[in-house]
Amino acid sequence: MKKLTVMLLGLGFATAAFPAVSNAAPFAPANQRAQMIQMRIDQGIRSGALNRREGFKLQNELRGIQKLEYRYSVSGGRLDLRERADLNRRYDVLSAKVRFDKHDGQRRY
User: Are 72 and 87 in contact (CB under 8 A)?
Assistant: First the structure.
């Protein structure tokens, strides 16, 4: 009986620990993030949630980040941690802008 209790207790701890590990978001490569943001911009333009001006501005900003990523990769051959952090921060800011512009109430008519 004691072995069964200890085994069930251990199993309970193990199952409680696994969801925390599996919920951790894996690192998304910068080009994959850029594709996802581009898809969100395109969807916003198609649905009318983004007007042409907003879409054009967001696409230009995305293109600028992609050019910066290229310059970073050419300069050293690989992205170092500082450059990767800078790109992630810029993609986060752009993603927030896309979300804001899609939900700001301005519609294409």
Answer: yes
**Residue 45 to residue 5: CA distance in whole angstroms:** 58
Question: Domain spans of the chain?
Answer: 27-102
Q: Average pLDDT in the 55-82 region?
A: 92
Reported for 66-73, long-range contacts at CB under 8 A and 24+ positions apart, including other chains, are 66/34, 69/30, 69/31, 69/34
Residue with tokens 């519609």: 107
Question: Per mean pLDDT, which range of 54-58, 59-63, 104-108 is the poorest?
Answer: 104-108
How does pLDDT run across 7-18, given as a tens digit for each residue? 666 666 555 555
| Cβ atoms within 10 Å of 87's Cβ, excluding its own | 19
